[in-house]
Amino acid sequence: MRDRQYLFNDADWFSVERNQLQKMGEEITAVNGDRLLNTAVDDLARYFESKFNVEVPALITEEIVVDQRETKIDVRHDPRRWIDDRSRPVYVPGTEVEVEIPFTGDAEVFRVQPTSYTLNPPRAEIRSNALVLRISGTDLSAEGVQQSINQTINDIQSYLSTLRTNAAGLNQQLFQRAKTAIESRRQKLLADRNLVGALGFKMKQRDGNQRTFSAPEVKRKIAPVMPTASSTPYKPEPVLNNEDYEHILGVLDNMVHVMERSPSAFHHMDEEALRTHFLVQLNGHYEGQATGETFNYEGKTDILVRSGDKNIFIAECKFWGGPKKLTETIDQLLGYSSWRDTKTAVIIFNRNRDLSRVLAAVPETAKQHPNYKREIAGNTETRFRYCFSHRDDANRELLLTILVFDVPTPQ
User: Fold this and answer.
1) 44, 90, 279, 338: which has the fewest C-beta neighbours closer than 10 Å?
2) What's the angle, vertex CA 179, arms to CA 177 and CA 185, rounded to 5?
3) What confidence tens digit (pLDDT) does each residue in 113-166 have?
4) Residue 69: partners with Cβ closer than 8 Å, 6 or more residues away
5) Alpha-carbon distance 265 to 263, whole Å?
6) How many other CB atoms sit within 10 Å of the CB of residue 193?
């Protein structure tokens, strides 16, 4: 690498942005089909977001170190000196000051020209984790050297500031772009498999079919790890659509309104008795429908919807017993069976006086659970919605809605 090379002068930002998006799309297309189908969409999208995120360097100016050494200076182009032959180097004793500026971030970004730049970019040597400025001359002064250092640092910071704005525009769209590409490929893969499956013939196993996906290393950057997932053939499982899920939750809400209007009728009921009233309402909406889905008891499961041999909706009804009991209830839901995209709910009845304390404890408890993945939009004051992973497979996700109802106590 040449000393004092021009920074921010190799590739323009628009080509870098275009290349990042193109390479991300190509890598999504290259992921093994079964691996892609068996991986949670958001987890895979975050992996690609992390991999193609552009991390603009930040100078650590408080850790600058300076060194000085003797050197020889070529003065043949110095107009102040009388030199007979300027076609050859003329060396005289001089001094060189070396300034090392540590930085964090991707060193390659120092080669990128931002959308706003000058015709005379700053110059420095790029090392693995530091920029090196060299100032040399035959009559250096502390004031002059300091002024030169400050000017160069200011120029570099100006370029980095513009690049941060450029990179923010790219980085903010990576997750959604990756998610859209992944979902599009998932739909294509599933459509193709349904097409072949409808033919009624045995699927042929291709020789050398890739069973795992290994992500290439990201240069000068800690490589993100592809989410762990099986490459075994993907088998679609039944799901409860969001419209039916919302309707079920609405039926539960309406039942609570009945309880609020007639508190004396429900005052002495235990969990099982209250659950029975919910089941009556739910069966009134769903039993006998074309889907054949019914609400019933199974073991200690409070409310269960099955499709074939798969649980697609499970709910637990509990009186509030503190954060520990809520954690145990979530564990209970996670332990029922393996499922994909299953919709679940925890119905909490509160007969204490301090409902605000319960509402404050619910999100804090849920987010501390080891299987918590993220919060889902749509929360209200008494409704909390989250994405959780199955206890044995992080790629098997379930939607958990926690409903908190204040059961009135007659006066």
Assistant:
1) 338
2) 105
3) 999 999 899 999 998 889 999 988 888 899 999 999 999 999 999 999 999 999
4) 95, 96, 98
5) 5
6) 18
